[in-house]
Design a protein that fits this description.
It is a single chain. This protein is an alpha/beta fold. It has 14 helices and 25 strands. The strands form seven sheets. Strands 1, 2, 3, 4, 5, 6 and 18 form a seven-stranded mixed sheet that branches. Strands 19-20-23-22-21 form a five-stranded antiparallel sheet, sandwiched between helices. β1, α1 and β2 form a beta-alpha-beta unit. The radius of gyration is 26 Å and the shape is globular. 45% of the residues are buried.
Length: 512
């Protein structure tokens, strides 16, 4: 009997197994196929390879502007997919996951075909082997959510992209969240006619509105047709020249022709495949139900990663795996909160976010916000990539940073710095005074911070300067901050609710 069995070899499961070994437990890790999880094998990593190819195609459009003579590249899609598989293999070789697990003392069972519970302390593998443990961590991940309607068998899910033999001439993507938008951006760059269908009023509806609107405008400029507020897909019909998507919008029936249809309609947990009833573990809609300590309804069984349905990201799954292992073996009650989780998407343009959206901050009634366009950024002008913006949100009462949302080149990289600052309790004045390298894309964070600094009244300005109205600041400009005693009283009412522009003119006047 093992001290712990971990079901699932993705980031959550591998992290849990390694941490359990560090704590001295005897551990078995079970995976139905190849360890590494969805993100490494057929999710984030291979998709990022396609996004890299798409970015290279896009960059070639600038050759003439920079005095480079060369033809526009053409995508060899089978060759690109072969390269994608090679890169996935190289990532596996770099990680040495199996070697690390073996060195730590874990016993690994791969290609199990799907483990399932026989009783609260026993799991069975497809080979009829049974294993027992005192504690369990269920980290069995998830899969693309499938929709059932007439003709759904003609559709693809995001995992099917890796088995495509050629690029379609046209494609309809159902689902405008992160996965659907990334695929839409990639296929459009490859010359495919793309239409993106979404139930919500806007794509990327879980992101801040500035992210959604900016990416949508960029998509339209790229020729991607956005069809929002659909009521759903009624059926997909096969025709001689391809497929036809029948959908409802505003009570009217519409037909959309496409050579291929991809359903990017969410991510379902794999709880239904584990016979959790035998272990007395509660689950709902494919997800295992857990408390804040990641404990299931069975006191000796914990869960981590996508299967909890909480924060389905690699970085969050790894953290959950570590917390679940410690809580299970040490009897701790450490909570999994996910308050500061930088994330983003490798669309064109990229987007990255962390912390509160402006809508969330508005509900608290105590915030200042600045939006700086990429056109104000020298690096963006140099690179010819001026599409995008940075929105920074800070508390008016504490001056601490509440969130950041960046759309544009290297956006995902930029928000990492904000996440680190938020974790350290950074105030916006500290960000404003950081001597960030020039010219860089990350410098846009300093520009936004200095706008908020003026809004909060922590920078002295003369009456004549204030009369000029809002002026844009240069990346290399710095202002001497006032001492706290010189800061005027702060308001609790957001500026737009007080009838002022979102980023008002400087508040402080300096006499003489």
């Amino acid at each position: 009997m093992y001290d712990m069995i971990v079901i699932g070899g993705g980031p959550a499961g591998v992290t849990a197994a390694l941490r359990a070994c560090e704590l001295g437990a005897s551990v078995a890790l079970l995976d139905r196929s190849r360890v590494g999880g969805t993100c490494t094998n057929d999710g984030c990593v291979p998709t990022r390879v396609l996004a890299k190819a798409a970015r290279l195609v896009r960059d070639a459009e600038q050759f003439a502007e920079y005095g480079i003579v060369g033809a526009q590249p053409v995508i060899d899609f089978p060759r690109l997919l072969a390269q994608t598989r090679q890169i996935v293999d190289r990532v596996h070789e770099k990680k040495h996951i199996l070697d690390h697990l073996a060195a730590a003392g874990a016993t690994v069972y791969t290609y199990t075909g799907g483990a399932h519970f026989v009783d609260p302390h026993t799991v069975a593998l497809s080979s009829q082997t049974t294993l027992q443990a005192n504690k369990f961590i269920v980290a069995a991940g998830g899969r693309p959510r499938s929709l059932r309607f007439p003709g759904s068998e003609y559709t693809l899910n995001p995992r099917d992209v890796w088995s495509m033999t050629r690029l379609p001439r046209s494609i309809a993507i159902v689902g405008g969240a992160a996965t659907g938008c990334q695929l839409a951006s990639i296929f459009a760059a490859f010359g495919v006619e793309v239409r993106l269908l979404e139930v919500a009023p806007r794509i990327l509806s879980y992101e801040d509105e500035v992210v959604s609107l900016t990416v949508a405008e960029a998509f339209r400029q790229r020729g991607i047709e956005l069809i929002t507020e659909i009521s759903g897909v009624e059926r997909v019909e096969r025709r001689d020249d391809g497929l036809a998507v029948h959908y409802l919008r505003a009570g009217c029936a519409h037909v959309l022709p496409a050579e291929a249809v991809i359903l990017a309609t969410g991510w379902a947990g794999n709880a239904d495949e584990l016979n959790l009833a035998a272990a007395e573990v509660a689950h709902e809609r494919g997800y295992v139900l857990v408390d804040d300590a990641l404990r299931t309804s069975a006191p000796h069984i914990f869960a981590a990663g996508d299967i909890t349905g909480r924060m389905m990201l690699v970085q969050s799954g790894s953290q959950q795996g570590r917390i679940a292992a410690e809580n299970a073996l040490l009897g701790l009650e450490r909570a999994s909160s996910h308050q500061i989780v930088p994330h983003g998407g490798f669309t064109d343009p990229e987007y990255g976010s962390v912390g509160q959206t402006e809508q969330q901050a508005r509900a608290g009634g105590d915030y200042a916000v600045a939006v700086v366009p990429y056109a104000d950024l020298d690096r963006a002008v140099v690179d010819g990539r001026t599409l995008g913006c940075c929105k920074l949100i800070a508390s008016r009462s504490t001056h601490k940073i509440l969130g950041a949302h960046v759309v544009g080149e290297q956006a995902v990289e930029a928000v990492q710095m904000i996440a680190a600052g938020m974790a350290a309790g950074m105030q916006v004045e500290q960000l404003a005074e950081l001597e960030l390298a020039y010219p860089t894309y990350t410098a846009i964070l300093g520009l936004a911070a200095r706008q908020i600094q003026r809004d909060l009244g922590t920078v002295p300005v003369t009456a004549s300067w204030r009369a000029l109205g809002h002026l844009r600041v240069a990346e290399w400009e710095r202002s001497i901050m006032l001492s706290q005693s010189a800061v005027p009283p702060r308001r609790s009412t957001p500026p737009e609710e007080a009838g002022e522009p979102t980023v008002p003119a400087p508040l402080l006047e300096v006499q003489g």
